[in-house]
Automatic annotation (TrEMBL):
Top-rank taxon, per record: Bacteria
Molecular-function GO term, any one: zinc ion binding
Membership in a protein family: Belongs to the zinc-containing alcohol dehydrogenase family.
Cofactor: Zn(2+)
Keywords recorded for this protein, A-Z: Metal-binding, Oxidoreductase, Zinc
Boundaries of every Enoyl reductase (ER) domain copy: 12-342
Name of the protein described by the UniProt record: Alcohol dehydrogenase, propanol-preferring
Gene3D superfamilies: Medium-chain alcohol dehydrogenases, catalytic domain, NAD(P)-binding Rossmann-like Domain
C-alpha cells in the first residue's frame, strides 16, 4: 500500500488542484476503497465555481467527487459484511446511523449528515475511506465504470421515475438531456413508460433517441408544447421530470401535464416561478423535489439494470486520468462532454 495518493480538490473560481496527499487509514467500522472509476456531476460545478449547492465546510479541504466505485483493499477490525477484494460503489450520504431517516435508508435527510466530495473527502482520488455501511456491493460482471454511473446518475433518476409512478401506462416528459436526463430516459423506458425527451441541443436529442426515447423535441420550438400534447393523446403527460433546473422548463412541464399528474424536479435551481392557480390548484398536480435515492433502493436499481440489460457505460462520453482533472472539469463545464469519468 503506498503512503501517498493523487487527489483532486476544487477550491473555487474555476481552479482545479491535483495534490499528493496521505492515503487514509480506516477506523474500526470503516473501509478503504481503491477507486477505479469516479464520475463528474453537474453539481460538482458549484464547487468548481465556488458556490457549493451543499455547504458545511471548506471545499479546499476535501477531495471532490461523490460518484465513486472500486475495490475494497482494507477493512476495519469491526467490519464483518465486507472483505478485501469486494467490488463496490459508494453511497454519497454519510448519516449518524441511528436517527429515523438513517434507519429507513435516507441518510441525506439526517440532521448530521455529511456528503462525499462536499463536506468530507470524496472519490476523485486513488483511495477513499468511508464507513462500511455506505458500501453498495456490485454484482459480478458489472464494470467499475457502470457501477459509478449506477449511483447518482442512474440511481437518482430511477428513484425519480419510481416517485412519479412510471409504468406501462405512463407517458413521461423529461426536460434536460444531459447525463441525468439521458439516465432518466433509460430508466423510464425500462420501467415501461413512453418518453418524450426535450432539450435545445440537437446532439443531446439524437442521443436520447438512440437510448429509446419515443419522441425528441426542441422545447424552444414554437409548436413544441402542441407536439407534447399530441404525443400524450391530448390529455397531457401522466408525469414529468425536469433535469434542467430552468424555470421555462418547469412551466412547460406543468403546462404539458395532465390533471393529477406527478412532476419531479431534479435539476438544481435556487428559485423558480410557476403559475400556482393554473398549475397547482386547477389541475391538482403533485410537484416535488427528488434528489438521489434511498440506500435500500439500490437492490432494485441493480435488478432493473440486469433484467433490462441496461448499458450504463453508454452514458460515459469521456474518460480521464486524475492528473487530467483540470482538462476534465474545463471540458465538462464547457459542455464538451456529457458524463465524464475519472478511471484507473
Amino acid at each position: 500500500m503506498p503512503n501517498n495518493m493523487t487527489a483532486v480538490f476544487l477550491p473555487g473560481n474555476k481552479q482545479v488542484d491535483v495534490r499528493a496527499v496521505l492515503v487514509p487509514e480506516p477506523g474500526p467500522d470503516e473501509v478503504l476503497v481503491e477507486i477505479k472509476a469516479s464520475c463528474i456531476c453537474r453539481s460538482d460545478l458549484s464547487l468548481y465555481y465556488g458556490n457549493a449547492v451543499i455547504s458545511g465546510g471548506d471545499s479546499n479541504q476535501f477531495v471532490c467527487g461523490h460518484e465513486p466505485a472500486g475495490t475494497v483493499v482494507k477493512v476495519g477490525e469491526a467490519v464483518t459484511e465486507f472483505a478485501e477484494g469486494d467490488n463496490v460503489a459508494v453511497y454519497l450520504a454519510v448519516g449518524c446511523g441511528v436517527c429515523h431517516h438513517c434507519r429507513v435508508g435516507i441518510h441525506y435527510l439526517c440532521a448530521k449528515w455529511k456528503c462525499l466530495g462536499f463536506t468530507m473527502d470524496g472519490g476523485n482520488a486513488e483511495f477513499l475511506r468511508v464507513p462500511a455501511r455506505n458500501l453498495l456491493k456490485t454484482p459480478k460482471g458489472m464494470s467499475h465504470l457502470a457501477a459509478a454511473i449506477s449511483t447518482d446518475a442512474f440511481g437518482t433518476l430511477f428513484s425519480a421515475c419510481r416517485k412519479v409512478g412510471v409504468n406501462g401506462l405512463s407517458t413521461i416528459g423529461i426536460w434536460g438531456l444531459g447525463p441525468m436526463g439521458a439516465a432518466g430516459t433509460l430508466a423510464a423506458k425500462a420501467m415501461g413508460g413512453r418518453v418524450v425527451a426535450l432539450d435545445p441541443i440537437a446532439e443531446r436529442r439524437e442521443f436520447a433517441e438512440s437510448l429509446g426515447a419515443d419522441l425528441v423535441l426542441d422545447p424552444t420550438a414554437p409548436n413544441a408544447l402542441d407536439q407534447v400534447r399530441e404525443f400524450s393523446g391530448g390529455e397531457g403527460l401522466s408525469g414529468a421530470i425536469d433535469c434542467s433546473g430552468q424555470t421555462a422548463a418547469h412551466n412547460m412541464a406543468l403546462d404539458a401535464a395532465a390533471p393529477m399528474a406527478r412532476i419531479a424536479l431534479v435539476g438544481e435551481n435556487r428559485e423558480t416561478t410557476i403559475k400556482t392557480s393554473d398549475h397547482m390548484i386547477r389541475k391538482q398536480l403533485t410537484v416535488f423535489g427528488s434528489w438521489y435515492f434511498s440506500i435500500d433502493e439500490y437492490a432494485d436499481i441493480l435488478a432493473l439494470i440486469k433484467s433490462h440489460k441496461i448499458d450504463l457505460e453508454r452514458l460515459a462520453t469521456h474518460t480521464f486520468d486524475l492528473k487530467e482533472a483540470e482538462t476534465a472539469f474545463r471540458m465538462f463545464d464547457n459542455r464538451e462532454t456529457e458524463k465524464a469519468v475519472f478511471v484507473r
